[in-house]
Amino acid sequence: MNHSSILGSLTVLSTEMRDAIIPAYNSSKSALNMLTVQLANALRDTRIKVNAGHPGWVKTDMGGEQAPMEIVDGAKTAVALALLPDDGPSGGYFHLGQPLPW
Predict the structure, then answer these.
(1) Cα–Cα distance measured from residue 19 to residue 78, given in angstroms and rounded to the nearest whole number
(2) Which residues are catalytic?
């Protein structure tokens, strides 16, 4: 599981979050999303699943106290993706079980 962010979504940044301009962060998360797709394709004939997960806006040093999610909730996506069954998705982008737009 690659720990991404909604701020790596080209779709989201070009539509609803146009003011979320953090060039190095956004670019690195977008690149991580591309790596997720490439690794998932390269490993598609194996049991290895490669997905990107967005934890949400979490109360951490980076997220700040104004963030709506507690750390335990921010971990839910990563845990779910780490525990995928053999027939689970690979090459996707998720938050709390829901697919996100690339």
Answers:
(1) 27
(2) 25
